[in-house]
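2024-03-11 09:14:02 DEBUG pipeline.ingest accepted 1 chain
2024-03-11 09:14:02 DEBUG pipeline.ingest length=159
2024-03-11 09:14:03 DEBUG pipeline.predict start
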Amino acid sequence: MSLSFNLRYLDEKEIRLQGELPVAELELGVTDELVRVESPLRYDLNVQQLHDSILVTGKLVLPLNCECGRCLKSFKQDLIFKDWALHLPLEGEDKVSVVNDSIDLTPFVREDILLDFPQHPLCKPECAGMNSEKTICVAAADQKPVAIVWAELDKLKLK
């Protein structure tokens, strides 16, 4: 099942496409350990025929399961294309492929998703990373913070 429509339905009026597209149909090919796509793409699209082209507008939402690139905390994030638009020419050298009077929108949706895919997901923009209480130890108010990792090395007696 792909995200497609039949051109014959556009002869009289515009059509509306609503539903979900399974992750497997998107064929994203993403192997990012910090971002996983496990839920289907939700779409609500209007398709209309112009003189010699097709105009598709609407909304796309893809839920993502992410891990923060700084603190590794799990969180959910939605890729939202609120005003998604696609212009498909029916004539000329850039014309869209029509098979059995149908046009498949899946490759165009896939391309836009991959272009907007988060490269360095953060649970929040001000995330400071791993829990600072575990990595920094303050001995007294007048001393500088000392990283716990280096504190053990400071105990070594070297000649």
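2024-03-11 09:14:41 DEBUG pipeline.report The chain has a mean pLDDT of 85.
2024-03-11 09:14:41 DEBUG pipeline.predict end
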